[in-house]
Design goal:
It contains 7 helices and no strands. By secondary structure, it is an all-alpha fold. The model has no long low-confidence stretch (mean pLDDT 88).
Length: 167
């Protein structure tokens, strides 16, 4: 389990760097696909709740050091998202197209709802997606349509991302 969490965090960290450097130049309405969220969702789906929430927490903590967000915000959002994705383990067959799209779309919506709830609870101290602006919906579309490619790529690394004894 430690190996899969470690590699999920490493893959997520590399994805976060790619998102903030390369993909930020290709942004549509200031939205880029959240590849790192897809990595946490993939790891959680194939490994279960505990791995999902721990990898989400540690990746979110690493992301908190990189961003100007309040410390712990990304850790909270990624932990909850990873735990919810981990609950889905074994419920559906992981196909190549439809399920990755559904999982990543749901994770994007969960992330947006958590941020909106925290924004309401903390009087605007936490940045939330404006629901009327296109940035959320463009990111949702980007995450949804890049998910099959991301999951296919991550399947190549199942030896690193899968818990020992589950290959």
């Amino acid at each position: 389990m430690i190996k899969s969490i470690f590699w999920t965090v490493i893959f997520g960290f590399v994805a976060a760097i790619l998102q903030s450097t390369l993909l930020s130049h290709l942004a549509v309405y200031r939205a880029v696909p959240d590849i790192a969220l897809g990595i946490v969702v993939y790891s959680a789906y194939i490994n279960g709740v505990m791995t999902g929430q721990l990898s989400g927490f540690f990746y979110g903590l690493a992301l908190d050091f990189l961003t100007a967000a309040p410390f712990g915000l990304n850790a909270l959002v990624r932990t909850i998202t990873g735990a919810l994705a981990g609950l889905m383990k074994g419920t559906f067959f992981l196909d190549l197209f439809l399920l990755p799209m559904i999982l990543c779309a749901a994770a994007t919506l969960v992330k947006a709802l958590i941020l909106l709830l925290l924004n309401l609870l903390m009087g605007g101290a936490v940045h939330a997606y404006p629901l009327a602006a296109p940035v959320l919906w463009v990111e949702l579309a980007l995450n949804t349509f890049t998910a099959p490619l991301l999951f296919a790529f991550l399947r190549r690394f199942n030896s690193l991302l899968l818990k020992k004894g589950e290959m």
